[in-house]
Amino acid sequence: MNYPEFVRVAPELGLDRLFDYRIPERLQGQVGLGQRLRVPWGRRSIMAYAVEFPAQPEVEKEKVRDIEEVAGERPLIPASLCQLARWMSDYYACDLGAALRTILPGPVRSHEGSGKTAWWIEPVAGRAELAAQVLKGARSQLKAWGHLQSTGGGWLTALVRETGIGTAVWRALVDRGLAERSEKRFVQAEEMAEEGWPDADKKPELGEEQTQAMAAWQEERKKEKGGRAILLEGVTGSGKTEIYLRAMEGVLAEGKNAIILVPEISLTPQTVARFRGRLVGQKIRLSVLHSGQSVAERRESWHEIREGRARVVIGARSALFAPLENLGLIVVDEEHDGGYKQAEAPRYHARDLAVVRGRIEGAPVILGSATPSLESGYNADREKYRRVRLTHRVDGAKLPKVHVVDLRKENKPSQGGPIILSADLSKALEDRRQKGEQSLVLLNRRGYAPSVQCPHCGHVEECEQCAVPMTYHRGEGRLRCHFCSAEKPSPHKCAECGSPVLKFTGAGTERLEEAVAAALPGVRWTRMDSDSMKARGAHGKALAAFREGRTEILLGTQMIAKGLHFPKVTCVGVVGVDGALNLPDFRASERVFQLLVQVAGRAGRGEIPGEVFVQTYTPFHPAIQFARHHDVNGFREQELEYRKAHGYPPYRRAILVSFSGPSEAQAKASAEHAVKRLREIWKEKVEVPDPGPAPIARVEGRFRFQIFLLVEKVGDVIGDLKREVLAPKWPTGLRVSVDVDAQDLL
Ligand code: ADP
Ligand code: ZN
Ligand code: ZN
User: Is 207 touching ligand 1 by the criterion CB < 6 Å?
Assistant: First the structure.
């Protein structure tokens, strides 16, 4: 055998730079791609991952040092995931280290936690400013803090060994509230509510369209490298999930494994039950990955998957990195969902990355949605993906009738304030209730009122740290900023002019709840949003109460729009879409359209036909009109025209370069400097617009400037962005980011 002599490693500390080492004879044949190694580092030694086997080292051969030892018998990271990390680092312009950290969660990275008093130390998010203040002069603590920041945390014993910083220093960080520690043994996980699914182990006979869909999938996956990704475009309730289930069963029977991605695992408990149901009686383990898992559980799941004990993995975005080998299927359900894009570096999109992983491993991919993203739809138009349609609901159930309620014609409430429930919607809710049926009411905004204004001088209570009004939360009697954690007691008079009367403008779910209670005396309802569902198990309890008919109305944010299947829901109200339509974001219409179709799809899933009421001041808006007719193609065509005219995605790729810092002038100047540099290098190649303040110009006391780029090919510009934007030393305190295929433009 000819074993590689050199290995290129990424230090676990999270440096983008790679270093070359020699594999000494005694270790040859033991180093695989993704293997964790101990390598000499100055006078110490550190842990690192093998990411490449170069024929020649980058430095002089004489200077290359030997690796010291190989940790673990086989690579900790499967080789294919190493390749995926590389791809991420190239495409999303992130450190390879950061990509590897995403792939290999903190608790897995260090094995040292098996002892009985092992402490896991993790930095507390959002404390960077605080740390900078309180740690001034405390050198070891600063160093320890920096280490936590770059590694994301570690087992105490390992931290001490790797850095040479003593236990007391780490404890001090915990005492100062900058880091958290948890003991492996005693961390309690939040239980995930698991909703049942009737007859989950029964297999229905496939309908005609479903049969064709299965045939297309079979045909495609026989092709080289798993064939093209299937874009399964099926109306709500058309049996898409049944296709995922069959595909899973098929690959499992062949001895292969499957990953199922859903937008928010904790909100889709029924999906898990359906997948589990199909595995009953077969000794196949399914591993559910969710954010409520404790450190110890995450670690255990990971190893169970890595060792091949679990063969199906269901989870949100990060489950894409499950270390499954012999992959036969990746499903991305609700592929259009914004939750698949990670907001922090690495800013990857799990749907797009699923297609990349599928290609690397030759694993077929199914992307499913009732309202595919324009990006995926465009890929199908160009035959990069294979489009398969399910146009009918199973059992011929009808799509619900959608009424658009024109709020301009509605009578204003006599006591003032906004119209929350129109007469039509109130009546429908009451009607359905009389008949013993159930309803959903969606208002995608939490709190009572999004702003508090003085009717005399017009003063609006704004967050001191962010350039946004504060939301009034009536339950707590406080104002909260939804962009940072700032809060304060609700004022009794205007801070400007002293007027004792203040006006609540707009409405959130708390106000909706009040309106529902007032309009329907004696109604039993649950409000579902991230405020009301904080308590452990609250979500599961609310769903159970609704399923058993103990509540009649479920109202809340988009939490109620996701994947729920309740046959008795026959009426859906949508309140307050206008705000979402008017956001300064080219995807605003697309998002509203998708949300409307999705929430409408919750109605009439049983025998009784459903009805939907959409309240709006712009009844003729295309997003609303096309949603009303369930016309996905119509919307697509119109929206594509607009995107094409402006060169927006899917025609070009959007890259958002952001600068933020405590000084407005400095953030602006830095953005301008970057623009100047990019124009010099790119000349005509890429148009670089002037930088502008972000729509939300200040968040957490940091002023934000953006450069919005539209490019033909990411690969053509990413190297330059890394070099000119990410690499340079910017003034202290300035943060720079590059968001490829940016979804959040605010
Ligand atoms: P989607 O994922 O497109 O919303 P589902 O797969 O959830 O659709 O199907 C909707 C309902 O129809 C579910 O109750 C499911 O069990 C049922 N169903 C799916 N396919 C069939 C079929 N071929 N025959 C009978 N019922 C089916
Ligand atoms: Zn005032
Ligand atoms: Zn704020």
Answer: yes
CA of 318 to the centre of ligand 3 (A): 28
Distance CA 599, CA 560 (A): 8
Buried b (16+ CB within 10 A) or exposed e, 276-288: bbbbeeeebebbb
What secondary structure, in 3-state letters, does 444-496 show? CCCCCECEEECCCCCCECECCCCCCECEEECCCCEEECCCCCCEEECCCCCCC
SS3 content of the chain, % helix, strand, coil (to 5): 35, 20, 40
C-alpha to C-alpha distances, 634 to 230, 231, 639, nearest whole angstrom: 21, 18, 9
- The verdict on the CB of residue 371 being under 6 Å from ligand 1 is no
| Single-letter code of the amino acid located at 329 | L
Token pair listed for 360: 């690397």
Helix (H) or strand (E) holding 305: helix 295-306
Pocket test for ligand 1, best of 206, 238, 270, 394 (most atoms within 8 A of CB): 394
First to last CA, the chain: 55
* Chain center to CA of 466: 23
Residue nearest atom 4 in ligand 1 by C-alpha distance: 237
Closest C-alpha to 296, from 76, 35, 110: 110
543, two tokens? 């769903």
CA Rg value for the chain? 27
Reduced to 3 states, what is the DSSP secondary structure of residue 710? strand
In this predicted structure, the answer to whether residue 114 has a pLDDT above a threshold of 60 is no
Give the integer Cα–Cα distance in Å for 657 and 579: 26
Phi, psi of 585 (to 5 degrees): -150, 130
Is residue 192 pLDDT above 70, yes or no? no
Residue 638 vs residue 237, higher pLDDT: 638
Q: Each residue of 121-140: pLDDT tens digit? A: 888 877 888 888 888 888 88
Residue 571: both structure tokens together: 């009426």
Ligand 1 atom nearest residue 234's Cα:
3
| Dihedral sign from CA coordinates of 294, 300, 305, 310 | negative
Per residue in 417-454, pLDDT (tens digit) is 889 999 999 999 999 999 999 999 999 999 999 999 99
Q: Measured from the CB, is residue 234 less than 6 Å from ligand 1?
A: yes
Cα→Cα distances 53→49, 145, 168, 463, Å: 12, 33, 40, 52
Torsion angles phi and psi, residue 149, rounded to 5:
-60, -45
What b/e string do you get for 650-689 counting C-beta neighbours within 10 Å, with b at 16 or more? bebbbbbbbbbbbeeebbbbbbebbbebbeeebeeebebe
Query: CA 528 → CA 151, 258, 508, 552, distances in Å?
Result: 35, 32, 12, 13
563 in ligand 1 pocket by Cβ < 6 Å? no
- Return the closest-CA partner of residue 712 out of 664, 648, 642, 618: 648
> What does 543-582 look like in DSSP terms, one character per residue?
HHHHHTTS-SEEEESGGGTSS---TTEEEEEE---HHHHT
Q: How many CB atoms lie within 10 A of CB 461?
A: 21
603: tokens are 């109605």
DSSP designation for 507 = -
pTM score: 0.86
